[in-house]
Design goal:
Elements lengths: L10 E9 L2 H18 L8 E10 H12 L5 E13 L2 E7 L3 H14 L10 E5 L5 H14 L7 E4 L1 E6 L11 E7 L3
Antiparallel strand pairs: 1-2, 1-7, 3-4, 3-6, 4-5, 7-8
Helix pairs in contact: 1-4, 2-3
C-alpha cells in the first residue's frame, strides 16, 4: 500500500470500498457496461461503499485503512434486489442484504475513519451513475434483470478493501483513483 510523507499533504476526499472477487467483478462489469451503452454514464469499478467520502490527508487515510483492516475478517455479501435511487451516485444499483456482518464491517471502518452517517447504512453496488428520469431508471432496472437473470441472489466473499480518492464533485469519475488496497483475514 502506498504511504507518502504527509507533512504537506492537502486534505482530499477518500472512500473505502469493498471489492468483489474476480469472478463477481467481471460479471458486474459486463452488466454495468451493457447498461452504460444503453443509458450513458461514467465508467467506475464495481464496489460496495463501506465508508462514504470523508476529507483526510492521504497518509492518515492509508494508516486508518491499515489499522481497521488488521482486525476484521472477510465477510459475505448477497445481492437482494435491483433497485432505483434518488440521486446521481445511486441511480440504478444492486441492493446488498444488510446482514449483521455487512453492517458491522461498515460500522467498524466508519469508527476508524471518524465518519458519522447521517442516514442508516444501505450497502449497494451501483450499476450506473446518472441523472435519469424515473421512467428511464425503471427501464434500466428491468434491463439489468433481463441481462443477468440470476443477479439477485448472487453471493460473493469480500476479502479486499480499497482506499479511493473520490472527489464527489467529479461526476465523470476520471479523477477517482484507488490509492491503497488491503486484504482482510480469511
Amino acid at each position: 500500500m502506498e504511504n507518502l510523507d504527509g507533512g504537506d499533504q492537502p486534505e482530499e476526499f477518500f472512500s473505502v470500498w469493498a471489492l468483489p472477487p474476480a469472478d463477481a467483478k467481471e460479471r458486474l462489469k459486463a452488466l454495468m457496461s451493457s447498461l452504460r451503452s444503453d443509458f450513458g454514464g461514467p465508467v467506475f469499478e464495481p464496489h460496495i461503499t463501506v465508508v462514504d467520502a470523508i476529507r483526510l490527508r492521504r497518509d492518515d487515510a492509508v494508516n486508518r485503512l491499515r489499522t481497521a483492516a488488521a482486525t476484521i475478517k472477510s465477510y459475505t455479501a448477497r445481492v437482494s434486489a435491483v433497485a432505483l435511487g434518488g440521486f446521481f451516485y445511486q441511480c440504478v444499483y444492486l441492493l446488498i442484504d444488510p446482514s449483521q456482518e455487512v453492517v458491522e464491517a461498515s460500522s467498524h471502518f466508519c469508527a476508524h475513519f471518524g465518519y458519522r452517517r447521517s442516514t442508516p447504512y444501505m450497502p449497494h453496488v451501483s450499476l450506473i451513475y446518472g441523472d435519469l428520469s424515473d421512467e428511464e431508471k425503471e427501464i434500466a432496472r428491468k434491463r439489468a434483470e433481463e441481462l443477468d437473470g440470476g443477479i439477485c441472489g448472487l453471493t460473493f466473499e469480500i476479502s479486499s478493501l480499497a482506499l479511493c480518492r473520490t472527489d464527489t464533485g467529479d461526476k465523470t469519475t476520471k479523477s477517482w483513483e484507488i490509492v491503497g488496497l488491503c486484504d482482510l483475514k480469511g
